[in-house]
Amino acid sequence: MRIEYDRDTCIGMFQCVAEWDGFERDSDAGKAILVDGEEQEEDQFVREIPEDAELDAKFAARACPVDAIEVYDDDGEQIV
C-alpha cells in the first residue's frame, strides 16, 4: 500500500499530522511534510505505508479537507 501527497494542495490544517505520525508539521511553510516521502514531481510525494500503519494512513487521507492525500492498494487502485 502506498500514499501520495500533493504538498501544493495542502492548506496547513494539519489534520493528517493528528491522525498519523507519517506526517509532520512544517509551521514555517504552513504545510505538512510526508516523512520519508520521495518527491516524484514538484510538490508530489509518495511512500510505501508500513503494514502496521495502514489504518492510520487511511485516516490521515480521509481527514484532509482538500484531498491532498491519496492511498492506493498494492494493485494501484485508489482506496482513499
From TrEMBL:
GO function terms (MF aspect): iron-sulfur cluster binding; metal ion binding
- Keywords of this entry: Electron transport, Iron, Iron-sulfur, Metal-binding, Transport
The record's annotation in SUPFAM superfamilies points to: 4Fe-4S ferredoxins
**Entry-linked Pfam families:** Fer4_15 (PF13459)
Q: Report whether Lipid biosynthesis shows up as a keyword of the record.
A: no
Mind telling me which PANTHER family this protein's record contains?
Answer: FERREDOXIN (PTHR36923)
Protein name per UniProt = Ferredoxin
User: To which species is this protein native?
Assistant: Halosimplex carlsbadense 2-9-1
